[in-house]
Design brief:
The structure is a homodimer of 397-residue chains. With 397 residues, chain A is an alpha+beta fold. Chain A has two domains: 130 residues, Creatine Amidinohydrolase, Chain A, domain 1, CATH 3.40.350.10; 255 residues, Creatine Amidinohydrolase (Alpha-Beta Complex), CATH 3.90.230. Chain A has ten helices and 17 strands. In chain A, strands 4-3-2-1-5-6 form a six-stranded mixed beta sheet. Chain A has a five-stranded antiparallel beta sheet with strand order 11-10-12-15-16. In chain A, a hairpin with a 6-residue loop joins strand 10 and strand 11. In chain A, helix 1 crosses helix 6. The two termini of chain A are 31 Å apart. Chains A and B meet through helix 3, helix 5 and helix 8 of A and helix 3, helix 5 and helix 8 of B.
Chain lengths: 397, 397
């Protein structure tokens, strides 16, 4: 594998887009600390902070480890930081003034860190800057689209590989292990980034037979069994059986860019009722895609999918059992597994070229099985393009 | 594997111990939201919040999913929660009063969540309750010690398995995949819990040859290469070679309880210089253990290890290269990979029976290799007991 770096012009464009939003919202400066955001705006995921003024060049403060940060980042001003307390003096030196209003990532920054920052950073007002960051990251560049296509290639090969290794007697977790080992050989980074502190993202959401019918704490139609009450979601220790529907929902990551894809598998044969539900999921999926193009409000896509599921006779099972239905059918994806825009009932994001999202119409037959599909799509100037390379079919192995 | 549950008397004892600390610190109530803390104090990791008053029974609020929470938790009062806004009224109903001072987990709770909680929870004062939680969790019960011994058994078998599969040409990541697949078959849950929002814990810290000599952003002697600049630590895509030192640092988790263990491997033979460094690490490790018993301040253990490393001629390499040395030699471990007490230069925790910690004296030969060892120990009434089952030796395969 070639050495991977984020190009300097990518970084500059991202900073410019963020600064535009800051100017429009009268924010004087942003201090970016979360590791994925830092990587997005600086090209390095070393331990540090990025100060972005509303205008002018940013400063990258590196706590550890300077030699790697210098090699990885195209930011011009990179400073070796001994203490967070030194930041205001360095900003003052460089720009001649301190920001009155300072944006921080309130959606991830813990209260205790914020309390400490407030004692040392000397801004007059602290504001939540996370939306500006997330809305900048929401629109992918041509270079980013290329990265996601490379991830999709690995994921496509991994699904093919699973066809050859799936067999009765493997546990869900073991099947996950085999497929991850295969994907890692191709560059899969194994760790999925989740933004929310309560979310534990993992690439092993494999729910076989009745485990697919288990609702749980996840904001997903089904949670599965998990390995224990301490981790009650995703693949568990149940062995796969021939003739049961197996939902395989895989996250794959290459150079920080994720894909998230689901296919239904069965060993030998898929029971008729499950087969029909799987096919209906694909019909819903195709119906939604007919409407994907710039200008469409994401909630319309959600509503459309619900109508279609109803028309096909799956109102009861669609998106989970009554009382526990999820209110989304997909989500933006990129450097984190779940990004803006979430394709949800209560979201008014309007599709724009460069958005990349997963589409995942799923059904839960409680205590019986799950059915569904998930692929990743790019919004283009005129419609959409499929980023995923996995065939849109039911995998009977 | 048997169905795993946290016994009711465990939960009651934990609540009692937390309440004692709350009473000693004049805290009227705690609202526990972080998923691992919630699991520790309630026995369920479903989506919810636990309210613990300074005296009396707690209330478990469940957002999703009630049927599993009811089955998993021994908390008597479990309430189906529609909205966080309903919490004060439910507390008022149950206890007849609202807490004036309310503890929250400031070390993990994001600012935006806290801002929202403040608008609805109606306490007069909000305080950081995380230390009370972490210091309760720091002392393990006999039942918890048993759980960690079960995890250690799986880890021990996994290290043995690695002896048989390690071979030249495997990438670091692929070796990690093979060992994780093996461990998952035995119940390994694969996901390691890290508390800090900036920490991405993973079970594949395998650093071969010169990758072991790579310092990086991690608060660890060496970070390794990682798979890309987007994830610049841990195993990477480098192929293993015969005759190079390979540091294998594995995290294993069963039913939520972690182990963290390191052994040095070499295929064929270990170079003499590396072999001597590995042996010296074991000598430092043994020297520290001679002093492990109740009443000892953890910083003394740290200082002792530094003296011993110096006496053995490894002052330069011990704990990382000059300017980048870490200031700890181990850490508490349990439901999270890193817990109290950290065995660090600047910590004054006094060892108590029931503390469980990893001990990891490590050395970095910059740009060449890492050497070291790590096992997990329990502090007993009179000294210590090794929880780890991995032989204390250098694995020449």
């Amino acid at each position: 594998m070639d050495e991977f770096h984020v190009p300097a012009d990518e970084i500059q464009t991202r900073i410019n887009r963020l600064q535009k939003k800051m100017q429009d919202n009268n924010l004087d400066g942003m201090l970016i600390v979360q590791r994925v955001d830092l990587f997005y705006f600086s090209g390095t995921a070393q331990n540090g902070l990025l100060y972005v003024p509303a205008e002018g060049d940013p400063i990258l403060f590196i706590k550890k480890y300077m030699p790697r940060a210098l090699k990885e980042s195209s930011i011009k001003e990179i400073v070796d930081l001994r203490s967070i307390r030194d930041i205001p003096a360095i900003i003052m030196d460089f720009y001649g003034y301190l920001p009155e209003s300072l944006g921080l990532e309130f959606d991830v920054l813990p209260v205790s860190d914020f309390n400490f920052y407030q004692t040392v950073l000397k801004a007059k007002r602290y504001l939540d800057g996370s939306t500006f960051i997330l809305e900048t990251r929401m629109i992918k560049s041509a270079w980013e689209i290329e990265q996601m296509e490379k991830t999709a290639e690995i994921s496509g090969k991994t699904f093919e590989y699973m066809r050859s290794v799936i067999r009765p007697g493997l546990t869900e977790m073991e099947l996950a292990g085999l497929s991850e080992t295969f994907a890692r050989r191709l560059g899969h980074g194994a760790y999925l980034n989740a933004r929310n502190y309560q979310t534990r993202a993992y690439p092993w959401h494999i729910l076989s037979g009745k485990n697919g019918g288990m609702v749980g704490f996840l904001d997903a139609p089904a949670s599965g069994a998990g390995t224990s009450v301490a981790f009650p979601s995703g693949a568990g220790n149940k062995q796969l059986l021939a003739g049961e529907p197996v939902m395989v929902d895989l996250g794959t990551v290459l150079n920080g860019y994720h894909t998230d894809e689901t296919r239904m598998f069965a060993i030998g044969n898929m029971p008729d009722r499950a087969m029909k539900a799987c096919q209906a999921s694909i019909e819903i999926h195709d119906k939604v895609l007919e409407h994907v193009k710039p200008g469409v409000v994401v909630s319309e896509l959600f509503n459309l999918s619900v109508s279609e599921a109803g028309a096909l006779g799956y109102a009861r099972e669609y998106l989970g059992p009554e009382g526990y239905k999820v209110t989304f059918i997909g989500h933006g994806i990129g450097l984190e597994l779940t990004e803006h825009p979430v394709i949800a009932r209560d979201r008014d994001y309007v599709l724009e070229p460069g958005m990349i999202f997963s589409l995942e119409p799923k059904m839960v037959f409680e205590n019986e099985f799950s059915a569904g599909i998930e692929s990743v799509f790019l919004v283009t100037e005129t419609g959409y393009r499929m980023i995923s390379r996995v065939p849109v079919e039911i995998f009977i192995c």
